[in-house]
Amino acid sequence: MSFGIACCSLEGMIAASGPRFDFDRHGIFFRGVPRQSDVMIVAGTVNHKMAKVVKTLYDQMPDPKYVVSMGACSNSGGTFREYPNVVLGVDEIIPVDVYIPGCPPRPESVQYAFLQLREKIYKNTEARLEARADARK
Predict the structure, then answer these.
(1) What is the spatial distance between Cα 99 and Cα 19, in angstroms, rounded to a whole number?
(2) Given phi > 0 = left and psi -120 to 50 = alpha, else beta, which region is 102?
(3) pLDDT tens string 37-82
(4) How many structural domains is the chain composed of?
(5) Which domain holds residue 33?
(6) What is the CATH number of the domain that holds 59?
(7) Residue 71: which of 99, 31, 108, 46 has the closest Cα?
């Protein structure tokens, strides 16, 4: 689910989904509906008013669900961290699996982050299947 709040969504996420980087070949399709998504990409500055919306959308996603924090603003507040209405990292609201640094992040780093998330999902799935097999013995 693409949750673009600020410039990171335009410059990083949309550029990464273009024909040059071709996310489709990795099986990545951006959705705007939380009930059809398993990964939430938070891109941009999250303020305290928006935090409730981010949490609600995260809760509406089916399990297993993953979060990618994209850009300096969603990772740590970025250049707006001195303002009292800015959340100092989306990880204060929801658990984050992969962080993408940069302001704005490069499309290559967005693609690399999804490859890292794929590895994390594969390892978690493999461990869960091994645990299930051990429980049956």
Answers:
(1) 24
(2) left
(3) 888 888 888 888 888 888 998 888 888 888 888 888 888 877 787 8
(4) 1
(5) 2-136
(6) 3.40.50.12280
(7) 99
Give the number of other CB atoms < 10 A from CB of residue 22: 12
Question: Which one, of 118, 111, 96, lies nearest residue 15 by Cα?
Answer: 111
Q: Rounded to 5 degrees, what are φ and ψ at 29?
A: -125, 125
Q: Which of 34, 33, 35, 28 is nearest to 13 (CA)?
A: 28
Which whole-number Å values give the CA distances from 76 to 53, 81, 93, 98, 132, in the listed order?
A: 18, 7, 12, 13, 37
CA angle at residue 47 from 41 to 48, to 5 degrees? Answer: 115
Record the pTM: 0.79
